[in-house]
Model the fold of this input.
Amino acid sequence: MTKNIKIVEIKNIVHKAIKDNNPTNFNGDILLNTSLFGSDGFLDSLGLVTLLVNIEQEIEAIYDIALTIADEKALSQSRSPFRSVDSLVEYLDLILNEKNE
Done:
């Protein structure tokens, strides 16, 4: 059984990864509705992959939980979990809770 990570901790990890990665010099405030990827997102595909890898590494370093965010489950969603900060946080919460069961 893995440690239960609170949603606020997930938000902090995502925000930190965006600020640390900053692939396109995003200078705005990182809000939950900030678009990440897609027609109005600030990340291109390489930036998204880099962000996801950084988040995976941070979660593993802090909580000793190995996970792959961009997997078949994520890619088969009817709405991409990578479209906004909020959708990514919700998806991370979902997969981390599944690992905790």
